[in-house]
Write a structure and sequence with these properties.
Layout lengths: L1 H9 E10 L5 E10 L13 E9 L2 E7 L10 E11 L5 E8 L11 E9 H8 L18 E4 L18 E7 L5 E6 L14 E4 H5 L7 E6 L23 H13 L7 E3 L1 E2 L2 E3 L4 E3 L2 E2 L8 E3 H12 L4 E2 L6 H15 L8 E7 L6 H11 L4 E7 L6 H7 L18 E5 L8 H9 L2 H12 L14 E2 L2
Helix pairs in contact: 4-9, 6-7
């Protein structure tokens, strides 16, 4: 009883009559579902809720349909509309279940159960016509079952993202007679695009406008910033008092391995894609400790502290240009190349959540760096589309510059962090560093340079944004 009472406060259901058929007691009903105040069981992320409608038949529950999954929301409004037959003379028992379906789950069996409520279809219809107003409504519509096909596009949308272009989707609401709005349709999200063209879709005139061609509609476009405000717990850069964010997890996992091969344990650390003080101009290669003359940090812990101190002082911006930071490290590696001795080998660790916006320049920079004593490790943070990063890796083919020049050797390793989200730090470090030893040997063998004594050999310099 406690659960049912709690969930009844969470769910809102709107029942809309679609029209009468031959039987005087049979009506088709639309149910719309929304939730408020879902318990956030994960301290590091919000749930990805999906609603499931079940009906009882002969004492058994069977699934009627389910909503879409809405990512990172504790108060979702589902666009999915349930259509059921309503028999006035029968008691039709309904059960609404809510499940947390994360991206690595396959169906409800692996999902986390968030709660449920049970009621009858008669209760939904009756309450939606009385005490639940104005949040929900019920009205008898015409029998018009015609469909319309709609298609929408946009041009030159405002860019609300920090490190890449916005990821827009479109929502269409119909305006009800009492002035409230009901969600009719939500399009797919188009990643990294300011001039999106959404897929066409079909919707019944009953659902869209109750058969009233003059009924007003609203359209709303949502923009999502890639990292979000670091002060917000949903941000990829959020500094949790007890749990490191994904940036820190990746930095520590890889950095603690690399630092054992660095004689002075000093690591230059740079950031990109932010407005920095004092004039807050966008920079793509600023020192995280704000000391451009000496960007080195004492150990990986020093890098962590510089990163944490830096976040409140900068304004996250964009775009995601990584060619400048690759070129910056390449300049240092070029100086080492001219010594013609095996003294220093540079490892550039790039942590990014965004889709690269300077792909041509990045390819050019990597081809140039492939001639130098350096390797590039890229860890993708979050759930963005990292297909371009896979191309830079070169495992599926030879990477070439825009002019067609191939890399001299494969120096890039890309790993999406979400593949290791529930694995040990050692598993991530092993994956991203697996190719580095061969890359070091290939470089010096190609140059005909023999290794120095172990006491003189400084093999790794780690950089991280």
């Amino acid at each position: 009883m406690q659960l049912e009472h709690k969930m009844s406060n969470i769910y809102e259901s709107a029942a809309t009559t679609l029209g009468l058929f031959n039987s005087p007691c049979l009506t088709k009903v639309e149910l719309r579902v929304a939730c408020k105040g879902i318990s956030d069981r994960d301290a590091l992320s919000k749930p990805d809720p999906c609603g499931v409608l079940k009906m009882q038949s002969h004492g058994q529950w069977f699934e009627v349909d389910r909503t879409e999954v809405i990512r990172s929301s504790i108060s979702p409004v589902f666009s999915k509309v349930f259509t059921v037959d309503y028999y006035f003379e029968e008691v039709q028992r309904l059960r609404f279940e809510l499940h947390d379906i994360s991206s690595n789950h396959n169906g409800l069996k692996e999902a986390d159960f968030l709660g449920a409520m049970e009621c009858t279809l008669g209760q939904v219809s009756a309450e939606s016509m009385t005490s639940w107003k104005p949040q929900v409504t019920a009205e008898e519509l015409s029998g018009n079952d015609d469909y319309v096909e709609l298609a929408f596009s946009a041009k030159k949308l405002d860019d609300k993202d920090f490190f890449s272009k916005s990821d827009p989707f479109l929502e269409i609401f119909r305006v009800n007679d009492d002035g409230t709005a009901s969600l009719v349709h939500r399009t797919e999200t188009i990643m990294n695009n300011l001039s999106p063209v959404w897929k066409s879709f079909k919707v019944s005139l009953n659902t869209l406008c109750s058969g009233d061609h003059e009924r007003e509609l609203k359209v709303a476009i949502d923009f999502t910033a890639s990292n979000g405000d670091p002060r917000n717990s949903c941000s990829l850069h959020y500094i949790h008092p007890y749990q490191p964010n994904e940036y820190l997890k990746a930095l520590i996992a890889v950095g603690e391995i690399c630092q054992d091969y660095d004689s002075d344990k000093m690591f230059p650390a740079f950031g990109f894609g932010a407005q920095i003080p004092p004039d807050f101009k966008v920079s793509h290669d600023f020192a995280v400790n704000f000391d451009e003359d000496n960007p080195e940090c004492a150990g990986i812990q020093g890098v962590v502290e510089a990163y944490q101190n830096c976040l409140p002082k900068i304004q996250l911006y964009g775009p995601t240009n990584i060619a400048p930071i690759i070129q910056k490290v390449a300049d240092s590696a070029s100086e080492e190349m001219h010594t013609k001795e095996a003294m220093e080998y540079f490892i550039l660790l790039i942590l990014t959540d965004g889709v690269i916006t300077d792909m041509a320049d990045t390819r050019e920079a990597i081809v140039h760096a492939s001639h130098l004593p350096m390797s590039v490790i890229i860890v993708g943070i979050g759930n963005a589309d990292f297909s371009d990063m896979q191309m830079l890796d070169g495992d599926d083919g030879i990477l070439r510059s825009p002019k067609g020049e191939p890399v001299l050797r494969d120096i890039v390793q890309f790993v999406p962090f979400h593949n290791f989200k529930h694995a040990s730090p050692a598993a991530l470090a092993k994956s991203v560093l697996a190719e580095v030893p061969n890359q070091v040997v290939d470089y010096y063998n190609g140059k005909g340079i023999k290794p120095k004594c172990l006491s003189d050999f400084e093999s790794s310099r780690a950089f991280s944004p």
